[in-house]
Amino acid sequence: MERAEFEAYLTPLLTAAYGYALRLSGDPDQAMDLVQEASVRAYQGRNSFETGTNFKAWFFKILTNVFLRSQRRRVGEEPTISLDAPDADGRARDYADYRPDPSARAIDRLDAEAVQAAIGRLPEEFRTVAMLYFLNEFRYEEIAETLDIPVGTVRSRLHRGRKLLQDELSAIAVARGLVETGVVDG
Amino acid sequence: MAKRLSCEEAFRRLDDYLDRELLPDEMAEVREHLQTCAHCAHGFAYESGTIKAIRAKIQRIEAPCDLLERVQAALDDVCREREPN
Question: Given B56, B57, B71, which is nearest A36 (Cβ)?
């Protein structure tokens, strides 16, 4: 594949790629570095891409791996959300126990920093799936292809990650006084 | 004719319905249930609204104006390394 053709595939994805890298890393400079490195790696490996297949999933796989490698080089913070928390299967809780969460209404009053903080607290495997879903609106199959995991794993991680993120954002909204606790949405 | 779902059956399909990942006939079954059950319709609308709110927050990102330029510069370096003078 010539460079011009490669760039024709890549350029339309760059903004989305930057956004994904930013949400994963939480740092604009690191996000830029991640996108640059992923672009270089993708270009160097461009002959492994099969024309006609999903370039977006292929490139985001490279970007995700670049990010994960950068994380393994880091020492320090671990997400503080426990994977063993109750409601581990997200929506698998009982229908009888379900109540719409009124604090979820305050999510739209949160600022970008609060959102980034909530994302940063997600365990890595939930964060990547959730970001591909929320940010890039990938379908289950695309997420599975990007992360090299079964579709069933995508479903369970997405549903769990979505619920974790929702709960985190709601907790931040409550902590900031954006919603009263104990308010029941009729 | 679509199978009539109970509230519990519809609830179990909530996430896949919101993600549009059900088969067409399954989507129709859930849709029919929501048309007849105000309680479930309220819950589904609530969850859908929350997803949209999160998406709106997360998608609000401005890429640096030199993003393309910097990526192209990185690719230029790769090409230069492969073509020494």
Answer: B71
- pLDDT score recorded for residue A111: 84
**Inter-residue contact A124 to A79 (CB < 8 Å):** yes
Query: Which 3-state string (H, E, C) describes B4-34?
Result: CCCHHHHHHCHHHHHCCCCCHHHHHHHHHHH
- Cross-chain Cβ contact A135/B46 below 8 Å: no
| Contact assessment for residue A160 and residue A152, using Cβ atoms and an 8 Å cutoff | no
d(CA B3, CA B13): 14
pTM, two decimals, is 0.81
Residues of chain B contacting A168 with CB distance shorter than 8 Å: none
**Do the Cβ atoms of A107 and B63 come within 8 Å?**
no
Are the beta carbons of A95 and B58 separated by less than 8 Å?
Answer: no
| Residue B3 per-residue DSSP state | P
**Two tokens, residue A161:** 């990650």
- Spatial contact of B42 and A100, defined as CB atoms under 8 Å apart: yes
| Distance in angstroms (rounded) separating the CA atoms of residues A27 and A119 | 12
Q: Tokens 């996000």 appear where?
A: A31
B31 and B60 Cβ atoms separated by less than 8 Å: no
What tens digit of pLDDT does each residue of A105-135 get?
778 788 878 888 888 888 888 999 999 998 8
B53 DSSP 8-state letter = H
Q: CA-to-CA distance for A10 and A21, rounded, in angstroms? A: 15
